[in-house]
Design a protein that fits this description.
There is one protein chain. With 301 residues, the chain is an alpha/beta fold. It is 49% helix and 12% strand. It is built from 10 helices and 7 strands. The protein is globular and about 50 Å long.
Length: 301
């Protein structure tokens, strides 16, 4: 017998990195279901525009997921203005691409801070209140790069593997508390982050709305693993039956090894520049200095 679907009407949902892309599409989908949404984003002006466009009780709040005190303030404001937090969607993330050996240390730290520590902070802050109330749902946006290593995005893949592992462990710790955990694993999505990527054979590029719909479905009928598109789950399961050499042959045949490594740098230029300035503490001149230092290291080596 199918379980009764859970209504999102009136539920308080906080979304990190919610001003654009998957975050914005998810906010839109949840508002359409009657949810009360708070968007947290480093770009607070864009977040405010997004919130105004969505209407209702939608809030726009400044949030730097790399700073615990910023996350504490964000959650406090959400609960003060909307009520106890029912759902946290850890969506904020960046994906600078390039050969691993050419990646400067500042870029690697920024990815780990945003993609992983941001999820850790948010999850730790959401759990106590949810456990006290005996209900709640934490949704962590990972990637299919969290299930396999993708050339051209080694550190990104590492952060998303960490998010998958974190989600699995936290889910086990929260068993029987009434708090659900889901991990969302999209393939290539038609967002600025996904711009210029190579399309793998057999896996179409998804729209942000497809990911948003999958998240809403997981909130209404909870499940742990959320694959977008769903066909990816079947491909992954079949791949696990093969020995490593066989998996690598299939990966090359599907061009999956070129999804990130073959990205068009010209198309991605605007995104890469914005991602390089995705921490308030990193000023434009600092980003340039980090790049210069990396170039110096290459020359010296």
């Amino acid at each position: 017998m199918a379980k009764e679907r859970r209504s999102l009407a009136g539920r308080v949902v906080a979304i990190t990195g919610g001003a654009r892309g998957i975050g914005e599409a998810t906010a839109r989908a949840i508002v359409a279901k009657g949810g009360r949404v708070a968007i947290g984003d480093l770009d607070v002006e864009l977040a405010q525009k997004t919130a105004e466009a969505l209407g209702g009780d939608t809030l726009a709040l400044e949030l730097d997921v790399t700073r615990r005190e910023s996350f504490v303030s964000f959650v406090s404001q959400v609960e003060e203005r909307l009520g106890p937090l029912d759902v946290l969607i850890n969506n904020a993330g960046i994906m600078p691409l390039g050969p691993f050996v050419d990646e400067d240390d500042a870029t690697a730290r920024r990815m780990v801070d945003i993609n992983l520590h941001g999820v850790i902070f948010g999850t730790k802050l959401a759990i106590p209140g949810m456990v006290r109330r005996g209900s709640g749902h934490i949704v962590n946006i990972a990637s299919q790069a969290g299930k396999g290593g993708f050339p051209g995005g080694a550190t990104y893949s590492a952060t998303k593997h960490a998010v998958v592992g974190l989600s699995e462990a936290v889910r086990a710790e929260l068993r029987d508390t009434g708090v659900e955990v889901s991990v969302v694993m999209p393939a290539v999505v038609n967002t600025e982050l996904g711009s210029g990527l190579v399309e793998a054979r057999g896996v179409k590029v998804s729209e942000p709305s497809h990911v948003a719909d999958a998240i809403v479905e997981a909130l209404e009928a909870p499940r742990f693993e959320v694959w977008v598109p769903r066909v990816s789950a079947g491909i992954y399961r079949l791949m696990t039956l093969l020995p490593r050499a066989g998996r690598e042959v299939v990966v090359r045949a599907l061009k999956a090894d070129q999804v990130l490594a073959g990205a068009d740098s010209d198309i991605r230029a605007a995104y890469e520049e914005r991602a390089a300035r995705s921490q308030p503490s990193l000023k434009p001149e600092d980003a340039g200095a980090a790049s210069d230092a990396a170039d110096a290291e290459k020359v010296e080596s």
